[in-house]
């Protein structure tokens, strides 16, 4: 049943169904001040950085998107090959199917063989920590792909509107903290499309979580996805009421950066272009994640995935050039302005 559910999720997103909900990311409400005299060499702009102790060529992350469907094996291989070629990290989807069954769907050491030099992030759901998961399963998730970190994803809204969802979330903060103290790699906590507020980030920081993926609203709405796979009109009605739930991505990034100046923040949720990425970095993201925007190219070939990020990189580079930013550190100081109301 779990594998079939993952397949349905993948098929719905790939079919181009309307799953973005009714909330905007917030990036449309801000713009850079154009610098007509940049005084820098565009070819010399440095987009590189460090993540999980490894050098990456540009500030992008292929976010978790595939978890257990049969076609996920080829998707993960395409992503791994592309990320190694262009020098960016990637995160696998939920490894629950691989851990609970003998079918790993490509979640194995072949990913590390295909991507030996870039950061790879493993992934389990927070809800599973109340259904028998603990340190052993977390270690297995990391070891099966030789990951550099473990993502624990938070998806309470999806679990709440999913007929077969896991809805007992009591005591999870303490259990996440326990993994932070005992696991041999860093723990990353991410939402899946509703945002992580500063208060929740502070709670996570207090138990040892130092990397947060805000995954705000404005991208894929998992409530909308669940509405499309609902078995009855009543189930669809419950899920569809939450299409505008959550904090817009831009708001979530900016609020978290203001509240946690030293946190490592991954900005994701509806980031569709390199200009969106530039805005996310300017308002507080250290790294920018994409999932649904990459999925179609990931089903095709490594070359298509690489081409997608080459375009993203070119767009980001132009944004840097036209703000006079020779580095990402400069971009974080670029002047911005609010878009006048009504535009």
Automatic annotation (TrEMBL):
GO terms for biological process: isoprenoid biosynthetic process. One of its GO terms (cellular component) is cytoplasm. It is found in: Cytoplasm. Its main location: cytoplasm. Its EC number is 5.3.3.2. Pfam families: FMN_dh. Its cofactor is FMN; Mg(2+); NADPH. This is Isopentenyl-diphosphate delta-isomerase.
């Amino acid at each position: 049943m779990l594998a079939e559910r993952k397949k349905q999720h993948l098929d719905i997103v790939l079919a181009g169904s309307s799953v973005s909900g009714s909330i905007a990311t917030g990036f449309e409400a801000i713009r850079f001040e154009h610098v007509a005299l940049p005084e820098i060499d565009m070819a010399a702009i440095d987009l590189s950085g460090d993540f999980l102790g490894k050098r990456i060529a540009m500030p992008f992350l292929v976010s978790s998107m595939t978890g257990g469907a049969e076609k996920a094996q080829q998707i993960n291989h395409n992503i791994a090959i592309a990320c190694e070629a262009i020098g960016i990290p990637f995160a696998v989807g939920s490894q629950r199917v691989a851990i609970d069954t003998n079918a790993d769907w490509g979640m194995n050491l072949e990913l590390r063989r295909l991507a030996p030099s870039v950061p790879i992030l493993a992934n389990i759901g927070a809800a599973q920590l109340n259904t028998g998961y603990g340190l052993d399963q977390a270690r297995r998730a990391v070891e099966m792909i030789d990951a550099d970190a473990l993502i624990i994803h938070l998806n309470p809204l999806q679990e709440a509107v999913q007929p077969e969802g896991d809805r007992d979330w009591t005591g999870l903060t303490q259990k996440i903290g326990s993994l932070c103290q005992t696991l041999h790699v860093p723990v990353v906590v991410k939402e899946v499309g509703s945002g992580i507020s500063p208060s929740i980030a502070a709670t996570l920081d207090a138990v040892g979580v130092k990397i947060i993926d805000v995954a705000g609203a404005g991208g894929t709405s998992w409530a909308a996805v669940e509405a499309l796979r609902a078995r009855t009109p009543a189930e669809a009605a419950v899920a569809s009421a939450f299409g505008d739930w959550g904090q817009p991505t831009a708001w979530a990034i900016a609020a978290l950066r203001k509240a946690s100046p030293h946190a490592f923040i991954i900005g994701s949720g509806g980031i569709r272009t390199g200009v969106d990425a530039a805005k996310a970095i300017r308002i507080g993201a250290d790294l920018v994640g994409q999932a649904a925007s990459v999925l179609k190219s990931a089903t095709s070939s490594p070359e298509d995935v690489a081409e997608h990020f080459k375009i993203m990189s070119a767009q980001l580079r132009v944004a840097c050039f036209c703000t006079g930013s020779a580095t990402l550190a400069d971009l974080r100081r670029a002047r911005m302005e609010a878009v006048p109301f009504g535009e």
